[in-house]
Design the sequence.
C-alpha cells in the first residue's frame, strides 16, 4: 500500500496523462503508473479491490496489453483524478467541435478563464500551456506531425501569411462574444504562438468592486470626476491596469460626455464610447491618434499606454486644454510614475500642474477558502529588506483541493498604491524631492500585500516578490 504522504503519484507526466482518457480514468478509478510496449500499470483505488480481476480484464481488452494494478489509498486516487482527469461535474463544460483541436482548445481556455494560450515547439515535441490567474500551467503535448497543420489553421483564422515563417506576425480571430489576439514568433525549432483571449463586453465591470479600499476609492473618484487633468495607472504587464481603466470609463460614460480611446488592442467594448485600434504600421500611433482626438471635441480621452516622450507631451497638452486624460504607464510604484515622466522629458512643473492622481497596482491570487491551512508564521521567512508593519503569529498557506483543482488558489484581487497630487505633493514634484518624502509610507504595495497575508486572504509565497521590492 502506498504511503498517503508519497507525492510521486501526483507527479504524472503529460505523456502518461494522455495515455488514457478522462472517462476511463474516472470509470475505473485508475491513474496510469507506467506504459510499455506490451504492458501498462495503473494505480487503483483500494475501495475497488474486490473488482480487480474484472477491471484488469476490461483494461486488457481496451489497451490490448498486459495490465498491472497497484492499490493505493482512496484520497490519493481522488486527488489525482481531480487534478489530471477532471470531469464535466467539476469543471466548466467545454464547447465541442468534434476533431477540431484548435477550436476545442480555445473554447476550453475561455471557459476556465485563461488569459493566454501558448503553443511552443521544441526539438522532440510540442507543448500547450494556459495562463490562469497569472500563472502558466501545462495543458497538452501534441505530436510534431500535427504541429504544422495547427499553425496553418491559426494563421488562416487570423488572416496571416501561411508561407511566412521567418518573421513575426500579429493577427486576430473574432468570435461572437470574444476575440483572440494572435502573436507568432519564429524560434529555433519553429514558430511559437501566443493567443490572448480578449473579452468584448465591459458591462460587468464595476469600479467599486475591483479592490479599492473605501478611502482609496474616495480619492480615486475625486480625481476622475475632475473635468481636466491626467489619471495614470501604473504596473507591470498583467497587473489589471486596463481593467481599472475600463471600470473608470464605464462609470464616466453618459450621454453628456464625448469619450474617445486609442488602444492596443481593444480588449473590451463599451456602448457609447468611440474606440480606435492602434495601427503603428500605417502611422496610427498613440501620439498621432491623440492629435486627431483633439479635433473631435472630446471630454474624456483614454490612451492605452504612454510609451514615449511625444505621447506624454501630447497627453499633458490635452489636459491643459480642458480634457480629462486616462492612461497607463509601466512603472513599479506611484512615485516611480513621476520619475518616469521626468525621464521622458516632461518638465516637473507641468507634471505637478496636470497629474490628478498616480496609481500603482498589482494582482494577488487569493487562497481557496475550502482548503487553506493555518501555519505558524516565521519572521525569518520574510525578505531581510522588509520591515513588518505589524506582528503576525499565524498565517495561511495554499493546500489544494477539488474546489481549486489542487492549486490552492481561487481568483485574484487588486491592491493599489494611491498618490493624489495635492499641494504638498505638487510642491515636492516641482522641487524634485518627491522620492525623499513620506507621502506614501503608509500606502505602499508591500504593506497592502502584507495586510492581505495577515487577513488570511493570500499566502506568503504569493506576495514575496512584492515584499522584496519594498
Sequence:
Amino acid at each position: 500500500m502506498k504511503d498517503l504522504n508519497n507525492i510521486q503519484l501526483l507527479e504524472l507526466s503529460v505523456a502518461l496523462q494522455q495515455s488514457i482518457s478522462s472517462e476511463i480514468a474516472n470509470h475505473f478509478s485508475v491513474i496510469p503508473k507506467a506504459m510499455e510496449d506490451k504492458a501498462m500499470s495503473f494505480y487503483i483505488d483500494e475501495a475497488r479491490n474486490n473488482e480487480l480481476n474484472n477491471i484488469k480484464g476490461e483494461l486488457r481488452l481496451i489497451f490490448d496489453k498486459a495490465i498491472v494494478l497497484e492499490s493505493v489509498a482512496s484520497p490519493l486516487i481522488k486527488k489525482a483524478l481531480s487534478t489530471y482527469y477532471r470531469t464535466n461535474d467539476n469543471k466548466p463544460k467545454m464547447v465541442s467541435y468534434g476533431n477540431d483541436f484548435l477550436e476545442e482548445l480555445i473554447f476550453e481556455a475561455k471557459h476556465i478563464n485563461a488569459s493566454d494560450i501558448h503553443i511552443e515547439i521544441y526539438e522532440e515535441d510540442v507543448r500547450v500551456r494556459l495562463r490562469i490567474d497569472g500563472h502558466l500551467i501545462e495543458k497538452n503535448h501534441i505530436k510534431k506531425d500535427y504541429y504544422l497543420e495547427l499553425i496553418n489553421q491559426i494563421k488562416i483564422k487570423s488572416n496571416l501569411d501561411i508561407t511566412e515563417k521567418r518573421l513575426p506576425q500579429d493577427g486576430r480571430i473574432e468570435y461572437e462574444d470574444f476575440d483572440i489576439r494572435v502573436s507568432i514568433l519564429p524560434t529555433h525549432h519553429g514558430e511559437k504562438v501566443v493567443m490572448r483571449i480578449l473579452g468584448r463586453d465591459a458591462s460587468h465591470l464595476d469600479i467599486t468592486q475591483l479592490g479599492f479600499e473605501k478611502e482609496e476609492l474616495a480619492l480615486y473618484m475625486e480625481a476622475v470626476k475632475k473635468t481636466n487633468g491626467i489619471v495614470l495607472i501604473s504596473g507591470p504587464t498583467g497587473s489589471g491596469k486596463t481593467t481599472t481603466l475600463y471600470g473608470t470609463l464605464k462609470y464616466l460614460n453618459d450621454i453628456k460626455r464625448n469619450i474617445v480611446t486609442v488602444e492596443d488592442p481593444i480588449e473590451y467594448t463599451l456602448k457609447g464610447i468611440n474606440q480606435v485600434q492602434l495601427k503603428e504600421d500605417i502611422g496610427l500611433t498613440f501620439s498621432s491618434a491623440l492629435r486627431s482626438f483633439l479635433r473631435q471635441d472630446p471630454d474624456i480621452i483614454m490612451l492605452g499606454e504612454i510609451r514615449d516622450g511625444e505621447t506624454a507631451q501630447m497627453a499633458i497638452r490635452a489636459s491643459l486644454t480642458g480634457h480629462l486624460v486616462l492612461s497607463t504607464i509601466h512603472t513599479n510604484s506611484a512615485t516611480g510614475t513621476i520619475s518616469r515622466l521626468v525621464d521622458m522629458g516632461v518638465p516637473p512643473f507641468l507634471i505637478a500642474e496636470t497629474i490628478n492622481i498616480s496609481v500603482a497596482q498589482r494582482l494577488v491570487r487569493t487562497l481557496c477558502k475550502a482548503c487553506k491551512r493555518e501555519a505558524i508564521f516565521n519572521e525569518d521567512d520574510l525578505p531581510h529588506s522588509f520591515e513588518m508593519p505589524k506582528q503576525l503569529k499565524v498565517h495561511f498557506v495554499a493546500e489544494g483541493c477539488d474546489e481549486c483543482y489542487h492549486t490552492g488558489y481561487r481568483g485574484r484581487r487588486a491592491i493599489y498604491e494611491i498618490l493624489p497630487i495635492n499641494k504638498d505633493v505638487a510642491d515636492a514634484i516641482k522641487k524634485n524631492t518627491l522620492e525623499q518624502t513620506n507621502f506614501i509610507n503608509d500606502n505602499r504595495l508591500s504593506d497592502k500585500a502584507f495586510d492581505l497575508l495577515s487577513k488570511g486572504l493570500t499566502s506568503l509565497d504569493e506576495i514575496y516578490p512584492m515584499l522584496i521590492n519594498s
About this structure: Residues 35 and 41 are 7 Å apart (CA to CA). The two ends are 48 Å apart (CA to CA). The chain is about 30% helix and 25% strand. The mean pLDDT is 86.
